[in-house]
Amino acid sequence: MARPLGRIKSHRTHLMRNLASSLVVHGHIATTVAKAKELRPYVARWVTLAKRAKNAAGADRLALERQLYQRTGNRIVVRALVDDIAVRTASRAGGYTRIIKLQPRVGDGALTARIQFVDGPVASSDSKKKQSRKSTKESA
Question: pLDDT for 110-131, tens place per residue?
Fold first, then answer.
């Protein structure tokens, strides 16, 4: 059962589409834990469809890519799914994403998390901050 997330169905659908598109393009996004948990199966359906499109040929591939476009609404996302993510996840039967819990948000204290693809690089907010601090000290 879908979480309402405090939104009506049409807004929730567009929210999930936008979050999933950002995840595909950037490889990871930071959001609330509830949204990340709701996003996981949504992205899994897209990846599974992209894998089917990658393995299909001719008219079947075109039809599957059109189904992806209908769901995503963005040709860049479709290309990224079929050409990059479907290749990286070819050996996986599922479990394409991981959720890493982060510190609560400063403004309202909401629990936040980073959702990212399992086969991509592990992006830790702490390590990026330490690296950026080191690089600024070294360059100075």
Answer: 999 999 999 876 555 554 454 5
**pTM attached to this predicted model:** 0.82
Using CA atoms, how far residue 88 sits from 50, 73, 98, in Å, is 11, 22, 15
**What's the fold here for domain 9-139?**
50s Ribosomal Protein L17; Chain: A, (3.90.1030)
The burial of 20, by beta-carbon neighbours within 10 Å (0-12 exposed, 13-18 middle, 19 or more buried), is given as: buried
* Share of residues in the chain with pLDDT > 70 (%): 85
Contact 67, 81 (CB under 8 A): no
Query: What phi and psi values does residue 115 have, to the nearest 5 degrees?
Result: -110, 135
Whole-angstrom distance, CA of residue 2 vs CA of residue 11: 13
